Amino acid sequence: MTSSKNLLLRPLARRSLRVIFGSASMVILAGCIAISYLSFSVWSYVGNLSVAKQGQQEHSSAQLEVEYLKLQNAIDAAAVGGQPQLEELRKRFDILFSRTLPLRNGSDAGRFNTDLMQLQVVLDAQIPLIDGPDAQLLASLNDLRRELDAVRDLPREIALDFMSYVAEDNEADRDRTVALIEVLIVSVTAMIVILMGSVIGLLRQAKSLQDATQAAARKDKRLGATLRGSLDGVIVTNAQGNIIDFGHSAEDIFGYSRDDVLGKKFYDILLPPTERERFIQAMANYNRTGETTIAEQGPVRLKLLHRDGHVFPGEIGASIAKDDAEFFFICYVRDITDQKAKEAELISGRDNALSNSRERSRFFAMMSHEMRTPLNGILSALQMLEGSPLSKAQKSYLAAALTSGDILLGHINDVLAIERAEKSETPEPTPCDIATLTDSLVATLHPLAQDNETVIELEQSQTQDRWFMTDSRGIQQIIVNLLSNAIKFTPGGAVKLALNYVPDTGTLHLDVTDTGIGIAEEDLHRIFEDFISLDSSYARRTSGTGLGLGIVQRFVNTMGGQITCASTLGEGTHFHVELPMVEASPDQLPKPEGQQPFESTQHKQHLLVVDDNEINRDLLGAMLERLGHEVSYAIGGQQAIDMAAETQFDAILMDVSMPEISGTQATRQIRSRPGINQNTHIIAVTAHALPSEREAFRAAGMNGFLAKPINLRELDRCLVAHEVCASSQIPSDQGADIPVLDDNQVADLLEVIGRDGYAARIEKLRVQLTTDLAALEDAQSVRDIQAHAHSMAGACGMLGAKRLHRLLQTIEAACKIGKADDARRQIENVPAAIKASLTAWDIVLKS
What we know:
By secondary structure, this protein is an alpha/beta fold. The protein has 28 helices and 17 strands. It has 6 domains: 23-203; 229-335, Beta-Lactamase (2-Layer Sandwich), CATH 3.30.450; 342-407, no CATH class; 424-583, Histidine kinase-like ATPase, C-terminal domain (Heat Shock Protein 90); 601-729, Rossmann fold (3-Layer(aba) Sandwich); 730-847, HPT domain (Four Helix Bundle (Hemerythrin (Met), subunit A), Up-down Bundle). Strands 2-1-5-4-3 form a 5-stranded antiparallel β-sheet. Strand 13 (606-610), helix 19 (614-626) and strand 14 form a beta-alpha-beta unit. It is extended and about 160 Å long.
């Protein structure tokens, strides 16, 4: 192990030396560059002193006065000789003008010589005359002479000024050269000082490095002893995978001695065949690209191979150490056989717990259906007997049966409430008028209070005329359980329910106080436990499962509140609940529904109803006729196409899922053929549709969407706007909380087709459901399951079977998104839902 650590320590010393020498070299190199630059600058300035920099401008300034005099002579000659002398005049003007150009364009002279600028103005003004006709030039010779005479002294002054400027510039160059020489001397001196300091620093650093190397050697020995005693096996390999060191713990883990493995490929002797290729590729990839897939990536779990041939689970963490010439992999290996066994045990325990929880939930859901459905039927039948002529003894028997049934139903509801509350899911808040809800709950409990000779007092503050966004079902469970519990244990006494909302804190305070038997102090900590009743003899007289307070605490916790209890034995009990509340905004409040029978305000339309299901077709037609429309019928897609080609309709209500030609296919054909209904509104009518399917309806040419089940108001709105008129979200639950029947839908149908008509259609559906259920249960493919569920859902929804319709929707939706197993599991719930629907229909028709 020591040899491997020396390999790591020596590069550290060498890297330190390289940093030091590199820094010194950079300083020296920078100094040399600076000195070279200064030397070059001095050489350049000295050279400039011996060169006439402004040669062309200086010559031009010297000749400027000569050319001016020659131009004056040419003017005089032209005045005497006439037109033949004009060419010479123009030539002399051009020469004078050209002499000014080097001076005018020079960056130095033009910057300060105002005389030159004045001369330039005069010459520029004469250019039109010089370039004009001969006659004009001859006539203006005197004017030209006067203009030039005005600037007679300027050429000489310009030459003198320029010579003075040249002398000053040369003097400045000499000053700059002297300054550069002085800087150069200072730089050379500083460079010498830096070199001397560097030499002294290097000597001191060399001594420090020698001391550091000796200290590193001592640390190397201590580190080697530490690693030898490590519980993890330490293995060092080179870039080729050859083992160059093998710790004592590694010997214990793998069963090899250090001498057995040195120089061998680690993956050949320490890894089973299933793991070797992974490491070979990882090392090849690192050698090729420098990117790691295992090393420096944290602990990696894998299978390891013992010397005796057995494979065991292990964990390896690898790091990379680099030397000047190569790099090394340092691996830390651990045998995790015991750890894996404990993890497997924990996972198994967790899976068993989850499985048990799921089985319990499934059991509760199943038993709720199986127990509450027949119990509701029994209670409904008993309630119907109450209005029949019975003897006094029969009436007492009936009262006992109803009381026992109500108690049994309450027990079932308590158990189901516990199950729902334990889901620990925060319910979606809905608008709730707590004041009205509380009034109705207290009124509901008055019969129980009268039987127990208990007085109920209700006091509310700041809750009237306020709506809150909360879990109304949770509020109901809390109030009902606390009040009923207080009433049962306060015979002949008083119970007070006080609600107070504090707007500043957004908190609802709920207090239930009674004058009952009270609770002993040592029992207060047990009252919220399930199935706890502190007075067994009294509990038998009052009945109860001992779940009420457990339900209350669960709902309070789920809603983010807190509950406390204070009691004195024999004097009474006080429960205090605090719940956070959010007031509902006006747009969140429910829209009030009219109580009067619905009447359409539309004009009469001629409509085509297309549906292969007779019940659906018949009911939808009856609703449309009730709204005052004229209705024609098509039993399939082809008939709809044929009728659309012959008769003008105001709108077509098209079922989507039909045999042979579907609703979307029929729509495409109607849209693609020129005819009287090519642009008629076509509304998709289906039991359920995902958002993606709505897009398919629109792509096919449908203008709107109407989801089953259908009621009169939605149907009327859809015919006005030809748009989506009913929700088609995938149902989130289909349990016993959903009403068996949609009361509003049933009421609309009874109003539209009458009780006899409704009964006839129910009987027809009863026969159809027997056949459809057998087909649904026998269906094998997802497509067949979806088709049968869709067919059944439409008819059931139209007749108001809300729970059965929702369950069939869920099955259909599961098929559409590929969850075949979920769909098949839900099919098991269909027979009970059918039975509940038929029972509820019978009760409605007999009432």
